From TrEMBL:
It comes from Streptomyces argenteolus. It comes from the Bacteria. Keywords: Chaperone, Hydrolase, Nucleotide-binding. Residues 234-325 form the CobW C-terminal domain. It catalyses: GTP + H2O = GDP + phosphate + H(+). Belongs to the SIMIBI class G3E GTPase family. ZNG1 subfamily. The keyword Acetylation does not apply. This is CobW family GTP-binding protein. The keyword Chaperone applies.
Length: 354
């Protein structure tokens, strides 16, 4: 039995559809944590853990739950193991954030947390990130997104830089209506006040748990068949190679990517096209961006990509990516020219913190 005064670390679930900006927001929090110690649990969909790689190095307290959706873990023992590690007194954490996969059912995660018998944690709220630019189309495809918003404590209307004021107002209205009780804040690049995570709204007293997520919120979810989960319709393809990619062929692949291929993330190695940098790649819907990042001194040169979509032909995509590999002997004028195709999608400096 734990004494009532034993410190309990709030565990916040950070959810949101594929590519909405969860990792970007998390990295913003880690960079601006104002003395707070934040533990991170990342749950990726896809067998290469790109998100874990993207937040790794920020804190000593990042663990990855690996492949698949945590919301469908048969039992929550893996989560419990990580929570135990992160709540060791030596970690001295103020808050733990679980970044859910973009296809997770947040209610399930919350339920697992509420069911956890770790006396050192308490449920700290659900933060749902919404991509303001993609929301109307995503909601049309997945009306069930509304039920995620309905149980959120805080909704971050992200990517407001990508929409006009009128579009933002329309999305905000839709989100507020679906959101029910959660506060809605607008953001670009996930730049919210880190205090939001430690805010009392997100740190209920034990007695307030039912205000956060009522039994009714959870029950229908328990009855819902697994095949109604968002990720049931999605498939992921992982691709990893130490052979550099040919920029021209890779761009042709990206330009002709099928409609159902909603999300691509990872790192591309263009070999002699740019020996100094790997290219972090993000595609969300039709949006595409590269961010050159210097290779570490001893880092293995390798392309690692995860592609997530519905109705995609995994085998064909894999084959197409294999055809993008190039054993190019060295720099040629042709190679330099074809790197321009990549550089067109490099972000403006400082536009992005991901
Ligand atoms: N223009 C714009 N781009 C953003 C913003 N926030 C994030 N992005 C970009 O959107 C892409 C996806 O961001 P992530 O943070 O990786 O999204 P995520 O929700 O973690 O993605 P998944 O883990 O695949 O679900 C990246 O290219 C980000 O740089 C924003 O406010 N504005």
């Amino acid at each position: 039995m734990t004494p009532p005064h034993a410190p309990q670390i709030p565990v916040v679930v950070l959810a949101g559809f594929l590519g909405s900006g969860k990792t970007t927001l998390l990295n913003h929090l880690l960079r601006n944590r104002a003395g707070n110690r934040i533990g991170v649990i990342v749950n990726d969909f896809g067998s290469i853990e790109i998100d874990a790689l993207t937040v790794a190095g920020q804190v000593g307290s990042t663990v990855s739950l690996g492949n698949g959706c945590l919301c469908c873990a048969v039992d929550a023992s893996e989560l419990d193991t990580y929570l135990e590690t992160l709540t060791r007194p030596s970690a001295r954490l103020d808050v733990i954030v679980i970044e859910a996969s973009g296809l997770a059912e947040p209610q399930e995660l919350v339920r697992m947390l509420l069911a956890s018998d770790n006396p050192h944690v308490r449920y700290g709220g659900l933060v749902e990130v919404v991509d303001a630019a993609e929301f109307p189309a995503t909601r049309e495809r997945h009306p069930e997104i509304d039920r995620h918003l309905a149980v959120a404590d805080l909704i971050v209307l992200n990517k407001t830089d990508r929409v006009s004021d009128a579009e933002q107002a329309a999305v905000r209205e839709a989100v507020v209506t679906a959101g029910g009780r959660g506060a809605v804040i607008s953001a670009a690049y996930g730049r919210i006040d880190p205090e939001m995570l430690l805010d009392p709204v997100l740190r209920p007293d034990e007695g307030d748990l039912d205000r956060q997520l009522s039994f009714e919120d959870l029950l229908p979810e328990a009855d819902r068949a697994h095949d109604t989960h968002l990720h049931a319709a999605y498939e992921s393809v992982s691709f990893s190679t130490e052979v550099p990619l040919d920029p021209r062929r890779f761009m042709a692949f990206l330009d002709s990517r099928p409609e159902g291929l909603y999300r691509i993330k990872g790192f591309a190695d263009f070999g002699p096209g740019d020996r100094d940098n790997r290219y972090a790649l993000h595609a969300v819907g039709r949006f595409l961006r590269f961010v050159p990042q210097p290779w570490g001194r001893d880092e293995e040169r390798r392309t690692q990509l995860v592609l997530i979509g519905s109705g995609i032909d995994a085998e064909a995509l894999h084959k197409e990516l294999e055809n993008c590999r190039s054993h190019h002997p060295g720099v040629t004028e042709e190679l330099e020219r074809s790197m321009w195709g990549v550089l067109r999608y490099v972000r403006e400096p400082d536009a992005d913190e991901a």
